[in-house]
Design goal:
By secondary structure, this protein is mostly beta strands. The chain is built from seven helices and 30 strands.
């Protein structure tokens, strides 16, 4: 087989290229990402591949990270800036706070938004950064954009006060004006509070009673003012997590696309307490993830996902779970370009467009586990969740290795057709073998080609007469 100069890539047949493309989406933990190729792909990109592991936390209020007659819900997205959403317990009611930012430069976050006299300004945050020790969204989490306005997710829970505080850093002692707080409700921004109040340096704190996506609007201040917005609370949170390392490396990324993204739930509990069920589904872009989260912690949460997933995708918790996101249209695989949002009279905010696309327009998977104590009432379920994400990005930073796609457009289409025909969700112990068996038998890829995957292909019973180097670096 002919080696391509400068890397471990291998020139292989069209059938093997299509198979490798499908494998890179279905098994991103084991196979390298493939640069997307269609008739218009001429850009040079760098590749990335990252993973995370974390324990599955129950949605109850107990202090244990184990699931004890409890539920766990997890979301993964086709989005670098919102890689996953996981529930983060806060049994001690530790305080958390995040300051809204309006851009990020080499010198750090931009925490102020300038509003001008007699203007109407919808604040356009790019993200929020942590100012507390307890950080349920890690160091930072990113905004969503829908129906013309930008908002940030803020959690609220009965018995624990959550606040959205607006202050002004540079006004005189008092000036007239109004502060509006809006909450996103199924595509519509609903006026949460209309306050024809004096805008003073003390500002105003909105007490939130419901978790959701919130936005702030400042109406007709009499003088220019720098606005500071902080969200704070002490409840458990739906932690919004970006892809690992993205927050500190965002300035090097000019545009990006996500490729393979998978989730694995492994049950590491002893046998006598491995009781319960687990299910998952890719519900489609029309249903926002929060419609599942509002039912979390109840039987309704499990039933809602199970009804979407169907009985075939509901399995014993003992066997764990594996699934991967399937692209459903070409839009899902476009490079997301940066663009600028300009306030009426204020600071321009520039950041990636998919940060400004709400998750209802992004393919995602929701997984929910229902645990039972079983025969050991003092025992709980120990679940380990692993997510793997791969993709490519454009950059002018010479530190990163960039290259053009090597596959042909037909190879990519064949790989996508193979992926579309595959089962999407599996029991953990058998997912690897079953996925490779499917890839090796789909007609669009052309026969049994598992041998292309080296030793792992041989492990599922296929000769290695065509073994290549795809496992080492792929044909990208």
């Amino acid at each position: 087989m002919k080696r391509l100069k400068g890397d471990l890539q291998t020139s292989v047949s069209t059938k093997s290229v299509a198979a490798a493309v499908a494998a890179s989406f279905a098994l991103p933990s084991d196979f390298p990402p493939y640069r997307m190729r269609n008739e218009y792909s001429t850009e040079e990109t760098a590749l990335f591949k990252v993973f995370e592991e974390h324990p599955a936390m129950g949605l109850g209020t107990g202090s244990s990270e184990q699931l004890r007659s409890d539920f766990h819900m997890e979301f993964i997205f086709q989005d670098l800036l919102r890689n996953r959403i996981s529930y983060v317990r806060n049994p001690t009611n530790a305080p958390w706070s995040y300051q809204w930012a309006f851009g990020r430069t080499a010198s750090g976050d931009t925490p102020n938004f300038l509003v001008q006299p007699s203007s109407i300004d919808w604040l356009a945050p790019s993200h929020a950064f942590a100012t507390s020790t307890f950080r349920p969204h890690s160091d930072a989490y990113f905004a969503e954009y829908d129906n013309g306005n930008t908002g940030l997710w803020v959690d609220a829970m009965s018995g624990a006060t959550s606040l959205l505080t607006v202050t002004f850093s540079t006004p005189p002692s008092a000036t007239s004006g109004q502060i509006f707080c809006y909450r996103w409700n199924n595509g519509v921004w609903v006026d949460f509070a209309n306050l024809p109040t004096v805008i003073a340096q003390a500002g105003y704190s909105f007490t939130l009673t419901q978790s959701g996506l919130y936005a702030i609007m400042i109406r007709q201040p009499t003088v220019a003012a720098n606005v500071i917005v902080t969200s704070s609370g002490s409840c458990g949170c739906w932690g919004h997590f970006s892809a690992p390392y993205i927050y500190n490396n965002a300035s090097s990324i000019e545009s990006a696309r996500t490729l393979g993204h998978s989730i694995l739930v492994k049950n590491v509990t002893n046998m006598q307490t491995k009781q319960g069920s687990i299910t998952g589904v890719q519900p489609g872009k029309s249903r926002h993830w929060s419609s599942f989260a509002t039912q979390a912690g109840t039987e309704d949460a499990f039933v809602a996902v199970r009804d979407y997933a169907g009985a075939a995708n509901t399995r014993p918790l003992e066997t764990g779970f594996y699934g991967f996101i399937k692209p459903t249209e070409e839009e899902d695989l476009k490079l997301r370009e940066p663009f600028t949002v300009t306030s009426t009279v204020g600071t321009n905010t520039t950041f990636w467009s998919y940060a400004r696309t709400p998750t209802l327009r992004t393919e995602y998977i929701v997984v929910v586990a229902q645990a039972a104590n079983g025969s050991n009432p003092s025992g709980g379920q120990n679940l380990l969740v692993r997510t793997d994400l791969a993709g490519e990005y454009e950059t002018s930073n010479q530190f990163f290795n960039v290259d053009k796609p090597r596959a042909e457009p037909a190879d990519w289409r064949d790989g996508m057709e193979a992926l579309a025909s595959m089962q999407q969700f599996y029991e953990n112990p058998t997912h690897w073998k079953r996925i490779l068996s499917t890839i090796g038998s789909v007609a669009s890829v052309g026969g049994r080609i598992l041998s292309l995957f080296g030793p792992k292909g041989a492990a599922v019973g296929v000769p290695m007469s065509m073994a290549g180097d795809i496992m080492k670096g792929g044909f990208q």
